What we know:
heterodimer, A: mainly alpha, Cytochrome Bc1 Complex, Chain C, two-stranded antiparallel sheet, B: mainly alpha, 2 helices, 0% strand
Amino acid sequence: MNVLRAWIEDRLGLSAVTGFLAKKDVPRHKHTFLYYTGSSILLFLVIQIVTGVLLGFYYQPTLAEANASVVRIMTEMPLGWLVRSVHSWSATFMIALVFAHLLGIAFTKAYRKPREATWVTGVLLLGASLAFGFTGYLLPWDELSLAATKVGTDLPKALPVVGPWLTQVMRAGGDVTGDTLSRFFIFHVSVLPLAAMAFIGVHLFLVQRHGMSVPHEEERKGVNVPVLPFWPNFAFREAGVWLVLLGLLTTSAVLAAPGIGPQADLMAPAPQGIKPEWYFLFMFQTLKVFPARVLGLNGEMFAVLIMMAGMAALLLLPFIDNRPFERKGKVITALAWTGLAYAIGMSIWSLL
Amino acid sequence: MNGRRRMIAAAGIFLLGSLVVSGVPEARVQETPQVALKPAPENTPGQETPAAPRPPREQMAVYVLLAWVWLSIAVLLGLLRLRVREADRVFRMGLDRAAEKTPRGPGY
């Protein structure tokens, strides 16, 4: 065993990594639980990759076979329905944890100097996660997914100048067709995973480079924040959280497996009750209730522009909120709480 | 404490072992799926394919698996709790870094 260890060490030099982890500390305070969200996201990402590869063995991204191949996975493959259900539920868990991670960092102002780039890569990862959800939603090619994708890809059209071009690029043509399905599939299994891996690599490097952030109120106390060694104290706690999350994932996947609707018909009218995934509900509801014309402008364009401004503000938050503990920072915190309440309220309204 | 730890570890190994063993007979009788040879089941318009497995045997197996999953998690959590308490005690006593002269990681 020692010979094997020495052989691996000679070639990979892993002792530098293990040495780093052995010396790594985790701050201990009332928000320490937020640190578990980051690693749990990685856990669900790995589950997504494994189940995604398994589904990919049998899924066929063509107009004629997409829906039928998903039906086959669910009805003929041994435990195929469970693999699909775990894939779907782990996406939900992952996005929920990404939101929790992001909100935790935003409200503890952990993006403050020198962690601006860490925040930016984190928001890009949120964007990649949402794009995974959006592209994956079309792949079963049923009535509902086709209608929801039509609505989703129609949105950028409202933007001036680049809008129609953007819709054309997303759909691989003027309308949602089999070409859109192929494009979404390639994005889902190749472009987005590569982008996500790149963002995760940079994000993790920056987290290790700067260490874990300590909430400002703890820093202000002027005493050293108590710490916990990463290995083994924090790692064992983290393993406990992972186990509970795995149990919840398995239970959800078994008890609430997603079904699949009838094959999409490109000529058929949109079915009743089109709804996107839960994380897009607030945008969907906003567009639904937004007035047709605002200040003489197209209401949809106005709404899309407001949403884009919101996303840009989120991405650049550390640079906008550059004095987080002064008056300006407090106003931004109040605005962030208002935005969160709005998103939750609109999502609930959409479900009613 | 050691006796309790040994008991939890033995229970965990027994539960996980019997879970693995219980799957062997079923795996032996399982047929190889002939996916490519079978035509895809067709959906009639407006009909949704149910998500849950149809064969009662598979349905029951899944619920049994779920019970085993939670049982295994409970055992593993018990073991982890013991390891965490031990690691915290070692840390409080300063035994983990007694020989170290190097400073702590970044961020402090």
